[in-house]
Amino acid sequence: MDIKKVLVTGGAGFIGSHTAVELLNTGFELVVIDNFSNSEPWIIKQIESITQKKISFYQADVTNQLSIQDIFNKEKPDVVIHFAAYKSVGESVTKPLMYFQNNIDSLMVILSCMSQSNCKKLVFSSSCTIYGNNHPNPLIEDYAFSDLPHAYGSSKQICETILQKTTIANQFNIISLRYFNPIGAHPSGLLGELPKGTPNNIMPYITQVAIGKLPFLTIFGNDYPTPDGTCIRDYIHISDLAEAHVFSCKRLLTSNIAPPYEVFNLGTGTGVSVLELINHFETENNVKIPYKIGLRRPGDAVCTYANPEKSKKNLKWEAKRSIKEMVKDGWRWQLFIK
Ligand code: WQD
User: Fold this and answer.
1) Rounded-to-integer distance, Cα 89 and Cα 99, Å
2) Do the strands 5-9 and 79-82 form a parallel or antiparallel pair, or are they unpaired?
3) pLDDT tens digit sequence for 99-142
4) I need a surface site. Which of 97, 110, 234, 258 has the fewest CB within 10 A?
5) How far is the CA of 106 from the centre of ligand 1 (A)?
6) Residue 255 confidence (pLDDT)
7) What are the boundaries of each domain within the chain?
8) 0.90 exceeded by the pTM?
9) Bridge partners, residue 32, by sequence
10) Please, how many CA atoms are within 13 Å of residue 189, restricted to the half-sphere of its CB?
11) Do residues 299 and 222 lie in contact, with contact meaning Cβ atoms separated by under 8 Å?
């Protein structure tokens, strides 16, 4: 296969940067667009340092049609991976308009630029939050969307609907990837999650407690109907998640095997509770995590984990890395950034 060019929006973010590394290591040429609203410029250098390859980088806002069209006209990508979006569930409850406008407008700009540049292949960053809390586990791709109390998940549902309903008329080939809970960091310790301010998600919160930046973890409820009373999630290593994007690009570039629109879960198929995650972290890293039991966090699902069979069968991908590797790699990254 001749060298193909992938354009990644949000490529300096947690998932985008790890995907950029795997794409470069696989031999793709890479264009990255990021406005650094939720990432840092030095991450681009980290990606280039880890891979010893150059990126064609543009600092731009993906809702700005004119600047993005200029980039498409210049770069003429073969595939687009669209990560750039706001992603905090909690923030989306208080700022719904900001979330709908940014997350939907940015997708519309991408689809318009693809259409005008005759680029037909897209991988879209979706989320397991679209399932809501009412479906039985393990979650499968055919489940209907649930009504959600937050604009973040609703914006992902709306984007998936737009993709499904426009792909045939525009002769696109599109894959939506529904992420479960990505955690950990690149095993080099040179790339990882960079939450702005106090982390919302549990893993960066745990590593900041472990290094002493935060005094203790608050466990949001231990009275759930689960074996140890704490919520269960499908934690997946960020490098496994990144590799799934490479598999998706290959599937889209292998002519005529991908249908116009496909959806895949990206999870391990195994549920891990909050207390189990803490225990894995303490055991693997020989670090104590002080915690207190707090109130339940509104909107939290009791238990979510994926049925990964469709990804294994059609994407030819499955998660390989263990929870032990996730907590070790996450800790190594926290020690690097301090
Ligand atoms: C995990 C568990 C909390 C923090 C996130 C994203 C969502 C989607 C999936 C991408 C829950 C508990 C957390 C803390 C805690 N990703 N917790 N104390 O909520 O499953 O969803 O990943 O689309 O967008 O929000 O992840 O890490 O916030 O919580 O007890 O300080 O840890 O109650 O059970 P969540 P999370």
Assistant:
1) 10
2) parallel
3) 999 999 999 999 999 999 999 999 999 999 999 998 999 999 99
4) 97
5) 25
6) 67
7) 5-183+235-267
8) yes
9) 8, 57
10) 9
11) no
Q: What is the pLDDT of residue 244?
A: 98
Does the pLDDT of residue 1 top 80, yes or no?
no
Residues 6 or more apart whose Cβ sits within 8 Å of residue 204: 193, 195, 330, 334
206 close to 219: Cβ distance less than 8 angstroms: no
- Closest-CA residue, ligand 1 atom 34, reads 231
User: Pocket residues for ligand 1 (CB within 6 Å)?
Assistant: 87, 89, 127-129, 179, 181, 200-202, 205, 217-220, 231, 233, 274, 297, 300
Average pLDDT over the chain reads 96
Count helices and strands in the chain by DSSP H and E runs = 11, 13
* Superfamily of segment(s) 5-183+235-267: NAD(P)-binding Rossmann-like Domain (3.40.50.720)
For residue range 105-116, list pLDDT tens digits in order: 999 999 999 999
Active-site residues, by number, are 152
